[in-house]
């Protein structure tokens, strides 16, 4: 428990620092983009602004996720971070589409740009975003929400490198169409990087079976318990990016006492945790019960 608390504190402190750094970058790039006339710089500023929003949401969700459960919130705020991830990735996809539309317009009407300002502000963004990436890198490995923020920041470093390269080409060769081209590259990368997180967070909220769990293999593990006849009405889902839940009906071969069935369940839970990292199980124990034995129960049967 203390280890989890320590992880939360580290994430919170480092996230707060990255928020401050990204506000500095965003303000500098918006002013610089307007003064220089660079869409690439404004694109990078919008990208950074979406990061500020993403980081603030990540920070709040990170604080909320450790709030305890209660009678009216039996899961607590465990899914606050998943909602934040879905919101962040959706915003980024929208920003990416907007930037592509604007860049296409400017591609056909290139303008003279103050490339000096583009280069220096691009360099500032690279330095501050690199610092932000290093601050939250460790926390991104086992937390989907921090990973979303980490991906945002890593993308910012790469897009700022592209902005600087574009500034150099404009400064030495007067190739001003490179500015909207870089905007399109930034936007396409932004959409691609966000889509995976959008898909993953949606699947958790829709309570889909985790992609790395094969239900047939779960059934095979359960059937290794000699006391169990079959497993049916299975539901496997992720509560958040760490906790996997399983619920199912178990048919026993004999009319066992509660104490003996508990021993079977203890062995079963141990096997499932070891094999599939399932952290919480709810089993309905049955003997010669006349119910639907479908592995996956179809709820529309009830309605009909």
For the biggest sheet, the summary is:
3 strands, mixed
Task: Give the rounded overall mean pLDDT.
Answer: 83
Number of separate domains: 2
Q: Rounded to an integer, what's the Rg over CA atoms?
A: 26 Å
SSE order, one letter for each helix or strand: HHHHHHHEEHEH
Query: Residue ranges: pLDDT <50 for 5 or more in a row?
Result: 1-10
* Protein structure class: mainly alpha
Query: β content, as a range?
Result: 5-15%
Major sheet: order of its strands?
A: 1-2-3
Helix content class: 55-70%
The best one-word shape is elongated
Summed up, the helix count is: 9
What do we call the CATH topology of the largest domain?
Answer: Alpha-lytic protease prodomain-like
Strand tally: 3
Distance between the termini: 47 Å
CATH C-level class of the largest domain: Mainly Alpha
Assign the CATH superfamily of the largest domain.
Cation efflux protein transmembrane domain
- Please state the second-level CATH architecture of the largest domain: Up-down Bundle
What key attributes describe this structure?
2 domains; 66% helix; Alpha-lytic protease prodomain-like; 304 residues; 3 strands; Alpha-Beta Plaits
Give an overview of the whole structure.
With about 300 residues, the chain is mostly helical. It folds into two domains: about 1-205, Alpha-lytic protease prodomain-like, CATH 1.20.1510.10; about 215-304, Cation efflux protein, cytoplasmic domain (Alpha-Beta Plaits, 2-Layer Sandwich). Helices cover about 65% and strands about 10% of the residues. It contains nine helices and three strands, in the order H-H-H-H-H-H-H-E-E-H-E-H. Helix 2 packs antiparallel against helix 5 and helix 2 packs parallel to helix 6 (about 180-205). The chain is elongated and about 85 Å long. The two termini are about 45 Å apart.
């Amino acid at each position: 428990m203390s280890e989890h608390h320590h992880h939360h504190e580290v994430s919170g402190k480092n996230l707060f620092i990255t928020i401050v750094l990204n506000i500095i970058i965003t303000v500098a790039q918006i002013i610089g983009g307007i003064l220089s006339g660079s869409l690439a710089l404004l694109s990078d500023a919008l990208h950074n602004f979406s990061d500020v929003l993403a980081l603030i949401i990540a920070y709040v969700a990170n604080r909320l996720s450790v709030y305890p459960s209660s009678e009216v919130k039996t899961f607590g705020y465990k899914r606050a971070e998943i909602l934040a991830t879905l919101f962040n990735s959706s915003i980024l996809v929208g920003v990416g589409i907007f930037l592509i539309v604007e860049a296409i317009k400017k591609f056909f009407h290139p303008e003279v740009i103050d490339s000096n300002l583009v280069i220096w502000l691009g360099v500032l963004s690279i330095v501050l975003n690199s610092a932000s990436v290093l601050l939250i890198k460790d926390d991104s490995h086992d937390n989907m929400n921090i990973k979303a923020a980490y991906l945002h920041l890593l993308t910012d470093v790469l897009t700022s490198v592209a902005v600087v390269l574009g500034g150099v080409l404009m400064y030495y060769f007067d190739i001003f169409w490179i500015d909207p081209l870089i905007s399109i590259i930034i936007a396409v990368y932004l959409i691609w990087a966000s889509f995976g997180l959008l898909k993953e967070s949606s699947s958790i909220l829709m309570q889909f079976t985790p992609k790395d769990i094969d239900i047939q293999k779960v059934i095979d593990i359960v059937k290794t318990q000699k006391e169990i006849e079959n497993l049916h009405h299975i539901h496997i889902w992720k509560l958040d990016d760490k906790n996997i839940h399983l619920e199912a009906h178990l048919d026993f071969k004999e009319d066992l006492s509660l104490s003996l069935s508990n021993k079977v369940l203890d062995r079963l839970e141990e096997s499932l945790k070891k094999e599939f990292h399932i952290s919480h199980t709810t089993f309905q124990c049955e003997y010669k019960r006349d119910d639907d034995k479908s592995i996956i129960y179809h709820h529309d049967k009830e309605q009909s």
